[in-house]
Specification:
This protein has helices spanning 3-15, 42-46, 54-62, 100-113, 130-135, 139-150, 159-164, 169-172, 185-194; strands spanning 82-88, 118-124, 154-158, 181-182, 198-200. It is an alpha/beta fold. The chain has a domain at 82-200: DsrEFH-like (Hypothetical Protein Ychn, Chain: A).
Length: 202
């Protein structure tokens, strides 16, 4: 048929109520056609159930066992053997309280170095004898001095001061023996320094 004939037929059919041409439908996709892959879920992205993020777990397992612990404290200092002379020629008050800091220094010195490693001498002259005079009446000072002597500390008393001030070591001072008395306090300090004793004025 030519174009004119087709047009005429279409017109006649249209008047008769018959659709000229059936609408062409788009064929449905086959049931087994491949669908677009679904986006992975948060669970799938994190890995199989129970892994809870394998990367984080592995990092935690790889961390050192002692991570986060405070650093070890430095080992105690080894001061070695020492020799020291404590020079006391000052007043400490009637009750002797002014001498207590010096006695504390001696105790701390022994604690740090060790009794066996420290040769400690205390040389007293002039007002320094006030320490033993106060201890004569103070049991607290007596206990401290006796404790230091038990740890090897020598308390040396100047004979010149005893004679010059008319002091009786047995009656006026605490725990003084003949071997504790030196002729001159200042000379004894100098002698000890010559023997390698470190001078300390507490």
């Amino acid at each position: 048929m030519n174009r004119l004939t087709l047009t005429t037929v279409a017109l006649v059919l249209g008047l008769a109520g018959v659709p000229a041409l059936a609408q062409t439908e788009t064929p449905a996709a086959p049931a087994d056609s491949a669908a677009a892959p679904a986006a992975p879920s948060a669970t799938d992205a994190a890995g199989p159930a129970g892994t809870a993020g394998a990367t984080g777990t592995a990092a935690a397992e790889a961390a050192p066992a002692d991570a986060g612990k405070p650093a070890e404290m430095a080992e105690a200092t080894d001061y070695g053997e020492q020799k020291a002379v404590y020079h006391m020629n000052y007043a400490g008050g009637i009750d002797g309280s002014g001498y207590r800091p010096a006695l504390n220094n001696m105790q701390n010195h022994l604690d740090a170095v060790g009794d066996a490693n420290l040769d400690l001498r205390v040389v007293m002259h002039g007002d320094g004898l006030g320490l033993l005079a106060a201890a004569k009446k103070d049991q607290g000072l007596q206990a401290i001095i006796s404790g230091l002597k038990e740890r090897g500390v020598d308390f040396l008393v100047c004979k010149n001061t005893l004679d010059g001030r008319n002091i009786d070591p047995e009656k006026d001072l605490f725990d003084v023996w003949p071997e504790d008395i030196v002729q001159a306090g200042v000379a004894e300090v100098a002698r000890l320094q010559g023997e390698g004793f470190v001078y300390i004025k507490p």
